[in-house]
Amino acid sequence: MLTTQRKKAILQALKRDGQVLAKQLSETFDVSEDTVRRDLRELAGEGLLQRVHGGALPASSAVVPFAQRQGIESAAKRAIGKAAAAMIRPGHVAIIDGGTTSAELVRHLPADLRATIVTHSPSVAVALVDHPSVEVIVIGGRLYKHSVVTVGAAAVEAMAHIRADLYFMGVTGVHPQAGLSTGDLEEAYIKRALAARAAETVVLASADKLNAASQYAIGEITLAQTMIVEKGTEAALVRPFEKAGIAVVRA
């Protein structure tokens, strides 16, 4: 089997099974594990998969810079944002992550909502400037320009004083085995710290993030209590999360 054929078969197996193991692939193709690992390295270099110990997982496509993601219209993101906004009740303290789906959440907050929004996203904070009855608390720190959010020790320190009802977490990967992940190490620390400050963590998961993984782990999927997905998401994709005790909301 040619290298190109082998790589195509690896990607097909990854799409079908949600993960591949180097040992099994070497047996299937009758080649050495070193050959398979080289194939996986090259495919990872092209952004087509995410290597993990012993094999690989599907790579998340939700890792492009914020400005590019912002320009992509998505009915699914609007629906997820609307469903998330409906979860915030009067008097709530809610933490809202950065990201394009979070931007949709903010747009759908009712004009008469009286609540407190805590965010480390300058974009989210600015979007709420004209909201008549929402108090905004901005977490400061070093600006991570890729996602337009603050990160670092100062941000973590500020979080220690917050007790929130809800945390709406943005991720680039949600995988039954690999858990919740993102494309930046400091951002992963911040997200985990924010989850620890909320009574309920809600993951905003459009289809491109499900059954995918990025380089840096935020935590196990059980770090979240609720997940909002697209209305048409296949039952097989969300079943592992429901079995783990996560409430899945279809938007």
Automatic annotation (TrEMBL):
UniProt entry tagged with the keyword Ubl conjugation: no
Listed PANTHER family: GLYCEROL-3-PHOSPHATE REGULON REPRESSOR (PTHR30363:SF4), HTH-TYPE TRANSCRIPTIONAL REGULATOR SRLR-RELATED (PTHR30363)
Organism this protein belongs to: Paraburkholderia acidicola
UniProt-listed InterPro entries: Carb_Metab_HTH_regulators, DeoR-like_C, DeoR_HTH, NagB/RpiA_transferase-like, Tscrpt_reg_HTH_DeoR_CS, WH-like_DNA-bd_sf, WH_DNA-bd_sf
Domain of life of the native organism: Bacteria
Tagged with keyword Methyltransferase: no
Domain HTH deoR-type: 3-58
Keywords (A to Z) from UniProt: DNA-binding, Repressor, Transcription, Transcription regulation
Protein name: DeoR/GlpR family DNA-binding transcription regulator
Signal peptide range in chain numbering: none
Single GO MF annotation: DNA binding
